[in-house]
From TrEMBL:
Residues 290-452 form the 3-hydroxyacyl-CoA dehydrogenase NAD binding domain. It comes from Saccharopolyspora erythraea (Streptomyces erythraeus). This is 3-hydroxyacyl-CoA dehydrogenase NAD-binding domain-containing protein. Residues 457-550 form the 3-hydroxyacyl-CoA dehydrogenase C-terminal domain. Pathway: Lipid metabolism; fatty acid beta-oxidation.
């Protein structure tokens, strides 16, 4: 028997053939891997001296999933995974899967086709396809239903997240969990295991009504996306159809969705996140053991909690003891040992042993410059100083420092301890050492660092301001805040823009607009709707009223007649006669304005790649992942259609409108 073919080789352990997948770095399924597996399975089936077969990974993983680059073509390269899995089931001897690392997607489907599954205790398994706009397509649902009840299987598929093997072991997806010597355990299992082809077993059934209840809950949480709906349909089909028919249905749905726009958008984001992670690797890693945070307000407390949760010690400084006490309470929610890693105080001397300092005081240039200057006098020379400003000019702040090369922006997005992306603002003078410190901190936090340049609002807030401005103009023209929120919720935004404004506080954006007043040309179209709300003390949830009204203890946004009056007054002051505005116009105007601002940001060199913007806006600002981010959305529009939408946007904005180059978005 030949032992080698590309990324798959066959080794012998006595009477057991050990088929080793060796396709670094993560053993992804490729045409070459699948061909090698087929050859190995056929060869071992023909060898009468083999009594059992083990499938195992050469490195950390058995198989981490499919190579998504293959998914962008109309027809997948042969052999496809179902052919390999059919060969496993048809093998005359038992086949055992040795699970390790991240055994995801096609990797888990490979394991489910085997007769027994032995896993390392630190292994994680999952079916991530719904998160990529698809469903499992090689029996993950059909075979999974032979081990899990329909409601539990649907939960696993729709969650699309890796799960510790201990959990799935309890559910019955793996047969044996070991702490070491995985190969030995799998070989022993191959000698003692009988053939047990899951697809020949009857599907599990659950408590009547429980599947429907689970489906409603998951659709409410994740939305009625094509992947979620198809997953529910495939589980139902697998409960009712013979396995062969259910497998055909599952594969057909996988193929239909794989070729669709949502899957393409999510693949784009996958590769964009990979590029962001690669660009965000520090050239030289820096140890980040102790972090100083100055400012114990909402953001400062959240930043402290993020670092404590990541295992760092935090020194939190604020002049207000009450603010420190509130922040300490928030940090304590990170876990039982969080309090032991947090020191608080009112004197900056507390920062003397910090490896990095993050300033998070009030959004005012003078205040921030003064704080950074004071901090520079108490920390060790050259220690990087990061400012958590949302809008202010990093270069101007650095210019006030004795050594500007140590200053840069570290823009956390709320909530700081949860959001998975970090906007890293590199100024003209920022040193590579300072950048490496912040990138090392991002790695510690588990956040994707998007490196951007300096402009008002940087990338995220600048693009979000264009998005929000267009929403306000639509209300000025005749839409209602709820109409706009619901139209955008329908295309997948995480939260409607007016509900977001109320949650964040209308005074935050109000201060940013006041800073820009002097530079604003009076000929530029400007909506004062939000200003009128702020002037009436309507700052959002914290005052019980903003664009919507709120009841104490309830964050539900309720329509408010007082808002309608203010909107009518604003329209009358500008001589605007309200008109009917439909959902299609709302979505087109808002998304086109967002994409156009992204094109301008790219033209100015503030962002490096379209994918950087898409990752930042989807991970940090709630732009729909199903659309792939504003750049991908625009780049996949028919050119004539997008050009017409851009022209309509320009007509709505009037003087000063700058059309960006659509070619920069792809």
């Amino acid at each position: 028997m030949s032992g080698d073919r590309g990324p798959v080789r066959v080794e012998r352990d006595g009477d057991v053939a050990v088929v080793v997948l060796d396709n670094p770095p993560v053993n992804a399924s490729t045409a070459a891997v699948r061909a090698g597996l087929l050859d190995a399975l056929r060869a071992t089936a023909a060898d009468e001296t083999v009594t059992g077969v083990v499938l195992i990974g050469a490195g950390k993983h058995l198989m981490s999933g499919s190579d998504l680059r293959e998914f962008s073509v109309d027809e997948l390269p042969e052999p496809q995974l179902p052919e390999v899995l059919a060969a496993i089931e048809a093998h005359p001897r038992p086949v055992v899967a040795a699970l390790s690392g991240a055994t995801l997607g096609g990797g888990l489907e490979l394991a489910l086709a085997c007769d027994r599954r032995v896993a390392l205790a630190d292994c994680r398994v999952g079916l991530p396809e719904v998160g990529l706009g698809m469903i499992p397509g090689a029996g993950g649902i059909v075979r999974g239903l032979r081990l899990l009840e329909p409601d539990r299987l649907l939960d696993l598929v729709v969650a699309a997240e890796p799960i510790p093997v201990g959990v799935v072991g309890e559910l019955g997806l793996v047969d044996e969990v070991v702490t070491d010597r995985l190969r030995d355990a799998a070989v022993a299992a191959a000698r003692s295991t009988a053939k047990r082809v899951l697809s020949t077993l009857p599907p599990r059934t659950g408590k009547p009504g429980l599947f429907e209840e689970t489906a409603r809950r998951l659709i409410s949480r994740h939305g009625a996306t094509p992947g979620v709906l198809a997953a529910a349909g495939a589980v139902l089909a697998a409960t009712a159809l013979p396995a062969t028919a259910a497998l055909r249905h599952e594969r057909a749905e996988f193929t239909r969705l794989r070729r669709g726009p949502e899957a393409a958008a999510r693949r784009h984001l996958f590769f964009a996140r990979t590029a962001v992670a690669r660009a965000g690797r520090p050239k030289a890693g820096r140890p980040i053991r102790t972090v100083g945070v100055v400012g114990a307000g909402t953001m400062g407390a959240g930043i402290a909690r993020a670092f404590v949760s990541a295992g760092a010690d935090v020194a939190l400084v604020d002049r207000d003891p009450a603010a420190l006490e509130r922040a300490a309470d928030q940090v304590a929610r990170a876990g039982r040992d969080a309090a032991a890693r947090l020191r608080t105080g009112t004197a900056l001397d507390l920062l003397s042993d910090a490896d990095l300092v993050v300033e998070a005081v009030v959004e005012d240039h003078g205040v921030k410059a003064a704080v950074l200057g004071e901090v520079a006098g108490v920390v060790r020379p050259g220690l990087p100083l990061a400012t958590n400003t949302s809008y202010l000019d990093i270069d101007a702040l650095a210019a006030t420092a004795a050594d500007p090369e140590r200053v840069l922006g570290m823009h956390f997005l709320a909530p700081a301890h949860r959001t998975g992306v970090l906007e890293v603002v590199r100024g003209r003078a920022t040193s590579q050492d300072a950048l490496d410190h912040v990138l090392s901190a991002a790695r510690l936090l588990g956040k994707l660092p998007v490196i951007v340049g300096v402009c008002d609002g940087f990338v995220g807030n600048r693009i979000f301001s264009a998005y929000r401005h267009q929403c306000e103009l639509l209300v000025e023209e005749g839409a209602t805040p709820r109409q706009v929120d619901e139209a955008l919720l329908d295309v997948g935004v995480a939260m409607g823009p007016f509900a977001v404004a109320d949650m964040s506080g209308l005074d935050v954006a109000w201060h940013a607009r006041r800073r820009r007043d002097a530079a604003r040309d009076p000929r530029e179209r400007y909506s004062d709707l939000a200003d009128r709300l702020v002037e009436k003390g309507r700052l959002g949830q914290k005052t019980g009223a903003g664009w919507y009204r709120y009841v104490t203890g309830d964050r539900t946004p309720y329509d408010d007649p007082a808002t309608e009056v203010l909107i009518a007054e604003a329209r009358a002051a500008q001589g605007i006669t309200p008109r009917e505005i439909g959902t299609v116009e709302i979505v087109e105007r808002v998304l086109t304005a967002t994409a156009n601002e992204a094109a301008l940001v790219l033209a100015e060199g503030i962002a490096t790649r379209p994918g950087d913007i898409d990752v930042l806006m989807t991970r940090g600002y709630g732009f729909p992942e199903r659309l792939g981010g504003p750049c991908h959305w625009a780049a996949t529009r028919p050119p004539a259609e997008y050009a017409a939408a851009l022209q309509r946007l320009g007509a709505a904005l009037g003087w000063g409108f700058r059309p960006g180059d659509p070619d920069l978005l792809s």
